[in-house]
Structures are given as structure tokens and as C-alpha cells.
Amino acid sequence: MEGSRLLTLVESLNKKEVRELRKFLRSPFFNQRADVVELFEFITERVFTLKMLPTKEQAFNTLYPGQDHDAQQVRYAMSWLLKAIEQYLALLPWLADERQQKIELARAYREKRLPKHFQQTMQQLRRQQEQQPIRNAEFFEYEYRIQLEQYAFTASRKRLSEHNLQEISDTVDLAFIARKLRQTCFLLSHQAVYKREYDFGLLEEALQFVDRKGLLRIPTIAGYYHCYHALRGVEPEHHFQHFKAILLHQNHLFPADEARDLYLLAINYCIRELNAGREAYAREGLDLYKEGFRTEMLLQEGQLSRFTYRNAVAMALK
Length: 318
What we know:
This protein is mainly alpha-helical. It has 3 domains: 5-95, no CATH class; 98-172, no CATH class; 174-316, no CATH class. It has 15 helices and no strands.
């Protein structure tokens, strides 16, 4: 069993996951095999309690006492258990995402031709969307899926005059623009360090679309837009100041992981400018470090890394 995908996966589980998996494996909806439950108990006891390496021979004797040894039978049980644990792990983010569940529920009600149930679920979805402070690519992707469900419902009732095709098109555009600008910023940052050339595809059209449609009113789009122009060197001071202002005053409108990535992009930009002899960027970088520390955005699991600490001190000494 040593080195198997199953054992490696079980060893990575925390206490909460082990507890939840015990319940998961005992649910007939997900698993109907007693030997899979027993195998999980066998492995977790040896890994977490006895601190022993479980073997396939021991597993067979525990799961199938009195039977002639059959290595293939153990391999089957291991495969079934691995699949069950993978299902559990795949379900976790879905169970934590209420909007995702509501969208799937709306689809189920639509397919079952339960209009009142569908409409009530859609109302709940719209309220959830309206209450979201973060309007990033994921927000617009959810909005697209909600609009798509509404269209499918309207079409099924042959009320095509009430269609929402424009809304669907608009949300597709916003989701693409938000993702495109974000990815472009990371490409540019990587390019600056590793001197690798990238094809930016539809970037120019995306930038023109932002300008034409006035999308800088959306902080998440504006943040990446100004970040891109600063990194690209197009009126860098002007765009950096806008970028910095968004980070300092509107970082709560970004998901925590995106905000942290943007802070690092901005700080690395300041470091490059400092290395080029523009010492005014020491103050700019310190402002970002202070806010990043205050909000704990630059901490990793509550800890300040040595790398971040050294960079912050070096910048302060400038």
C-alpha cells in the first residue's frame, strides 16, 4: 500500500475531513459497500493512531477474515475508496457555494416544469447577486448562468418577446474582460522576470471595449486595467496612481486571493522602479506594505514570510 495514491491522499486529510468522510462513506447514496467503510477505518487507524504503515495483506485479513488471500479484491476496495474520497473532495466547494447550488436547483425546477418553484429560486438568486460586493469575473460568470436559465425558462414557455438575450451577451463580455485583463497582468509580470514573449490575443480589442463602454466604473476591471498600463509603461505614473488608489481604498471589493495578487504586482512594480533609480517609489511601496500588513493581506496563514519581511525592510531603508 506504500506509495499508493489512496494512502498518500488519506495521509493528507485533516481531522475534520476524516470525521466528515466517516459520515460520507456510511451514506448509502454515496457508498453501499461495507468493505470500503472498513478499509477507510483500517487505514486511518494505522496512519493517525498507531502511526504504522498499512499493508495490503493486513487490509485483506481485516476486511475479509477467513477467506483465501486475493490481492485483486484489495485493489478493488482501494480503488472504490479512492473514488469515494475524490467525490467527497470534489463536492466540498460545491456545497460551500450557495449560488452554484441555487443555479442547479433552478435548472432542475425548470426541467421539471415547476414555474413557481423556478421563479422563487431565481428571486433568491437575484437577491444574492445584488448583495455581492465583489464584481469580479466569477460574479459576471454567475450572472451569465442566471441570465441563461432565465432565457431557457422564457423560451420553454414560448414567450420569446420577453427574451433577455442582450443581458446574456453583456454578462459574457464582462466576464471575459475581467478574466482577460487579470490574466494579462500576470503574463506581463512573468514576462518582466523571465524575459519571455507572450501572445496577448484579443487584448487590444478588450482594452478598447473597456474605454468605449466606460467599464472603469467597475473597480475589479479598473484595477487590472490600470495595472496593465502601469506594467506596460503606457503613462505609467498616471496609471500606477489609479492602481494604487484602488488597492488602498477599494481592496475590499476584490476576493482576498485576487487582492493579495494585485498587492504583490504593485509592490514588485515599485521594486523594479526602485532598481531603475526612481527612489520616489520607495514611499509608494511602503504605503502598499503598510496597508497589506494592516489588512493581513500580505500574510500567509497569519504569518509574515521572511521574503516579504526582507523586502519591506529593504524598501524602508531606501
